[in-house]
Amino acid sequence: MITVSNAVRVYKRGKTEVRALSLESLVVPTGQFLSVMGASGSGKSTLLNLLGALDVPTSGTITIEGREISRLPDDELSAFRRDRLGFIFQFFNLLPTLTAVENVILPALLSGKSRSDMEPKAHALLEQVGLKGRDTHRPDELSGGEMQRVAVARALLTEPALLLADEPTGNLDSKTGAEVLKLIRDATRARNLTVVMVTHDPKAAEVGDRIVRLADGKVVGDELTRSAAA
Amino acid sequence: MLQLLRLVSLRHLSLSPLRTVLTIMGVAVGVATLIGIAAINRAVMGAFRSTIDTIAGKADLSISAGQAGFPEDVLEKVSKLPGVQHAAGSITVVAPVKGTPGERLYVMGVDLLDDGFFRNYEGADRDVGHMSDDLEFLNSTDRMLVSERFAASHGLKAGGTFQLVTPTGTQDFIVHGLLKETGPIKAFGGLVGVMYIGSAQVAFTRERMLDRIDVGVDPKVGTDAVKEALQAALGVQYEVARPDRRGQSTETMVRSFQLGLNLGSSVALLVGVFLVYNTVAIGVVQRRREIGVLRALGATKRRIRALFALEAVVLGALGSLLGIPLGTLLAKGTVSAVSDSISSIYVQVNATSVTFTPFEMIVGVALGIGGSLFAALRPAFVASQVQPVEALRKDMASGAANVSSFATIVGALLIAGVWPATRIPAPIENFPVGGYLAMFFILMGTTLLSPLVLRVLQRVYQRPGELALGVPGRLAADNFARAPARTAVPVSALAIGVAMTVCIAGFVGSFQKSSEKWIDQSVPADLFVTSSSKVAGVQNVPLKPEFGDPIEQMPEVAAVDRLRIYQHDLLGLRIFIVSLNPDIYNLHGKPEVREGRLPTHEMRQQGYVTISENLSRRRNLHPESTFEMDTPTGRRSYKVSGVITDYTSDQGTVFMDRKIFVAQFNDDRVDNFEIYLKDPKTTEQVRDRINAQWKDEYDLFVLSNQELRQEAYALVDNAFSVTYAMEFLAVILALLGVINTLLAAVLDRTREIGLLRAVGAARKHIVRLFAGEAALIGLTGGVIGSLSGYVLGYIVTKVVGVEATGWDFAYIFPLKLAVQMLLAATACAIIAGLYPARRASRLDVVEALAYE
Ligand SMILES: Nc1ncnc2c1ncn2[C@@H]1O[C@H](COP(=O)(O)OP(=O)(O)O)[C@@H](O)[C@H]1O
Ligand SMILES: [Mg+2]
């Protein structure tokens, strides 16, 4: 479960202050697939960064699986990210010099796990995301959709508590995008994984269980999707 | 164009101020060493020349006959010769000043009445004109007029006393008056004393001898005619020359030494130019989109090329201008070290001040700017190839860039040309063009090949990198070869610095090893006694032979060999004649005979001598070869009996029986008393006794065999100290290049750093990533440098060195130093990399992810 209460993020740009986000309360139960929508500049990325422990709120608290992450030092935030979180970005998700497998096991290697322990699992995950036989390809030998699949596999490897995706299909054509979205939904549902995904695309948002709409850093809408309601 | 430069380039340069400053510093240091060394070389040669010139005064001709001088009655003969209007004899002695080690006073013994015609002496406190009949001055053996400079530095006034070391020991001298620093008093850095000739002859035990006669010629007869007449009248052993022709063999001799210094400074500039290449190339990569926009807006390819070339010129000009004051500082700081080195090996000079000529400055600045422009050619060309559509491209850092096959081919060709280049014979003595060319080929060849080497090494480094540092280590290995053209620059710059250091150390070490073996075999005495200098040769004061008599009487002493080590011109070389007593020497010494044999007593009487290996090689002299040498007793013919290994002088050495030498050279003084003991255990005892009795009086240095060896080591080390310092600078410059390159890499990979941080890399991982890459740059530079240093050292020892010194000794690779350099290069690169690494690790994750 994720709990955000009274989280405020203020950016100072010179003398002026920008209130990028001010959330009174947001609770995401374990296993829920939450889509976040809103106009450009409404605070979506800011929210995702806070949930992803990439940034800390100016005030307020964020708790993920009982752990308060809003006041942790940098080292612990990093460790938390690699052990408990998975990320999928819009583009440039992979390190160009590493093979698909190596990209997948990167977080595990960063926590000091051994290659030989993790590789079998990574191969299995790559097969699950539909990349059988492409394990040793490098990013420049993969298509955009394939790269996103590798990113999904990486996000799943450490069995995280929360998967964060910032417009994961924004760079893909609609058919490939739909496939990747389905992959994310199926893989997370099977694992009862919580997902928070930012998207511009209403159709993509519908893939999740719930949609939260932001405007000027505040929640202006919160509803269950048809698929969840059904 | 200038608008464009202001708008595009200057903004870019000011956005990465650190990199810009590093580059400018790089050029500055390169230019500084270049003009600094040129100024030092000129200062040293100038000091030597100006001593000759200022002393020569208005003389049309001057007559000399080597170091031992000639009898003073020659003066009368000269004066009577038709066409000679004036003639003045003089002696000169460079005397160590007691109490201030290393300081020497240039004492001229002249007859002021005659001498006034040629030279102008100006008294500071009294009229020198009266001096020629000042009886107090003429009748004493200890009164001297000294330069104001000397007086001031010792706090002396007229009537004050000071001490000089003479062949008969330390003597008191009285300041009779002070001389203004004009005319001849400017010689020898202004440390000059003038005595009445008769007094000087007595004081320095040169009775009835002259070193030089200056001649004023009747213009109606003409200098050439008088020169011929003098030569005919005096005989070939006299050198009758115009003053400006004197000292040429000395200048040739010092040339190879100076060439080495010039070589060192060129390397520093080369590394500086590398930095410019680095910066401009990085700028092109980082501004591809900007260039695309310019192209889309209608800028021609030529314009883009000109823009980047201009940018390099601006960097080069700023660096060069900064290099001038820096070079001045450098020259001022090192001139005395170079001067001391030359004084201890070749000829006594006293160069303390340096001046800079506009020409040198212009050349320095031109080379700085020209080098920078040259460095920018390729990046500028690459920039002009950027297509307008790239303006639109959303750049994703790619995994791999290509290695230019053109560079690889040229690099391979250069390396292939190394061996043939070493075969090119030297066009002028002491100037081994082929060897230098081969060295240049190696440096350029490895530089061009290094991108390829980086590629290969990437695979080698991956595993160990990951083992040592985890994934960051693996990624560091990848990143290391990702922009091979860019990373190759600091690698090559480091490699050049390391290579030159290893090369010089290899040469020096090999020489020291060989000379150690030589001292072992050929210099067997237990104690060595010299006056005023630790080693006999250029700087010591020769003593009277009787000085050895009481030592001979000591019960512990088996024998005392009296050596004269006499600098003399032979076949255009300024060689040493070492005269010793073969009966003593042959009992103990086992010189390595390379050809022929050591002469027997009978052979010695027939003119057979032993010569050194390098003289043999330089002048193609072998057993039974004959050569002629001018001695104070006429031109004589000698025959080579044997060729032996000897490291007394890089010019060459002739060994003679002392008895024969004394008879032929009219000189019985002794430079080195070599003491053989009955029992080596008494060394300290005997040394203490000699020191207690005579050290003070004669300013003695009594060295044991072991200490002599150390001195020989130190002499060589000192000779190369400035060169070492320059290579050290080159390595520092290269480290600036490491910072430069990594800062650019941080910018390029900001997005990647953000991604790594998002998937859980902690700050320490990012630090390791960049420090690891720095370590690999350092390690690779160290490895390439050590390997090419191995070859360079071989070439310097076996090609350049053989040509410049005639010595051919075994080359020993300085393995220990190479390993140390390799580790130091790695460690220093890591330290240099820490700043960029820290910067990378402090990047704000959110901003890094949003980058581009
Ligand atoms: N690093 C920053 N510094 C200053 N203002 C920022 C920064 N990041 C975001 N903002 C501002 O915060 C607001 C929310 O931004 P963001 O969360 O990126 O919106 P979205 O992702 O919904 O487009 C915007 O007004 C944006 O300009
Ligand atoms: Mg956004």
Features:
heterodimer; A: 230 residues; alpha/beta; Rossmann fold; six-stranded mixed sheet; four-stranded antiparallel sheet; globular; B: 852 residues; alpha+beta; 4 domains; ten-stranded mixed sheet; nine-stranded mixed sheet; 29 helices; 21 strands; elongated; binds adenosine-5'-diphosphate; binds magnesium ion
Word description of this protein:
Chain A is an alpha/beta fold and 230 residues long. Chain A has a single domain (2-229), classed as Rossmann fold (3-Layer(aba) Sandwich), CATH 3.40.50.300. Chain A is built from eight helices and ten strands. In chain A, strand 4 and strand 5 (67-68) form a beta hairpin. Chain A is globular. The two termini of chain A are 22 Å apart. Chain B is α+β, with helices and mostly antiparallel strands. Chain B has four domains: 1-58 and 250-399, no CATH class; 61-241, no CATH class; 407-424 and 433-522 and 709-852, no CATH class; 542-698, no CATH class. Chain B is built from 29 helices and 21 strands. In chain B, the strands form three sheets. In chain B, strands 12, 13, 14, 15, 16, 17, 18, 19, 20 and 21 form a ten-stranded mixed beta sheet that branches. Chain B has a nine-stranded mixed beta sheet with strand order 6-7-5-8-4-3-10-1-11. The longest helix of chain B has 45 residues, at 301-345. The two termini of chain B are 28 Å apart. The interface between A and B is medium-sized, with 33 and 28 residues. Bound molecules: adenosine-5'-diphosphate and magnesium ion (MG).
Element layout with pairings:
The complex is a heterodimer of chains A (about 230) and B (about 850).
Chain A lengths: L1 E12 L2 E13 L4 E6 L5 H8 L7 E6 L2 E2 L5 H11 E4 L11 H11 L4 H14 L15 H14 L4 E5 L7 H18 L2 E5 L3 H4 L4 E6 L2 E7 L1 H4 L1
Parallel strand pairs in A: 3-8, 3-9, 6-7, 7-8
Antiparallel strand pairs in A: 1-2, 1-4, 4-5, 9-10
Chain B lengths: L1 H14 L1 H40 L4 E4 L5 E2 L2 H7 L3 E13 L7 E7 L1 H4 L19 H5 L3 E5 H7 L6 E6 L2 E11 L12 E5 H7 L5 E2 L1 E6 L5 H12 L4 E3 L6 H39 L1 H9 L4 H45 L12 H27 L20 H12 L1 H5 L10 H37 L1 H10 L3 H39 L4 E5 L17 H5 L3 E14 L2 E8 L1 H7 L4 E4 L4 H5 L2 E5 H6 L7 E6 L2 E11 L8 E5 H8 L6 E6 L5 H16 L1 E5 H15 L1 H28 L1 H9 L4 H43 L9 H27 L3 H6 L2
Parallel strand pairs in B: 4-8, 5-7, 14-19, 16-18
Antiparallel strand pairs in B: 1-10, 1-11, 2-9, 3-4, 3-10, 5-8, 6-7, 12-20, 12-21, 13-14, 13-20, 15-18, 16-19, 17-18
Helix pairs in contact in B: 1-11, 2-9, 2-11, 2-12, 2-25, 9-11, 9-12, 9-17, 9-25, 11-12, 13-15, 15-16, 15-17, 15-27, 16-27, 17-24, 17-25, 17-27, 17-28, 25-27, 25-28, 27-28
The structure holds adenosine-5'-diphosphate and magnesium ion (MG).
